Amino acid sequence: MFPVVPKLTLSTAKCGEQLRVRHICPDCPHCVRLRELGFRDHVVVRKIADGAAVICLLMGTRLALGRELCDHVEVERFAA
């Protein structure tokens, strides 16, 4: 059997990491707002700060997102 690897989300990623969005739920009403902000599959995002809100850099814009919303963004580490 293969070990189960927990999925990496924007809320669980480390600060300073460059990440690529792997998946955002297609039907979730919260994810509609994420798409409006520019989050799409394969978009590169950098997590800047991790506190009460997660601050990230997306396409040259800093965004502050709630932790619950960040749980909906599945990411992977991305080496530039």
Describe this structure in words.
This protein has two helices and five strands; from the N terminus they run E-H-E-E-E-H-E. The protein has 80 residues and is of the alpha+beta class. The protein has a single domain (18-77), classed as SH3 type barrels, CATH 2.30.30. It has a five-stranded antiparallel sheet. A hairpin with a 2-residue loop joins strand 3 (53-58) and strand 4. It is globular. The model has no long low-confidence stretch (mean pLDDT 89).
Structural class: alpha+beta
* Morphology call: globular
Helical content class: 10-25%
Largest sheet: 5 strands, antiparallel
Beta fraction of the residues?
A: 35-45%
Per the CATH scheme, the topology name is SH3 type barrels
Q: Give unreliable regions as ranges.
A: none
Counted up, domains total 1
Number of strand elements: 5
Rounded mean pLDDT is 89
CATH architecture: Roll
- Order of strands, main sheet, comes to 4-3-2-1-5
Superfamily (CATH H level) name: Ferrous iron transport protein A (FeoA)
Q: How many helical elements?
A: 2
Radius of gyration: 12 Å
User: Distance between the terminal alpha carbons, to the nearest Å?
Assistant: 33 Å
Task: Name the helix and strand elements from N-terminus to C-terminus, one letter apiece.
Answer: EHEEEHE
At the first level of CATH, what is the class?
Mainly Beta
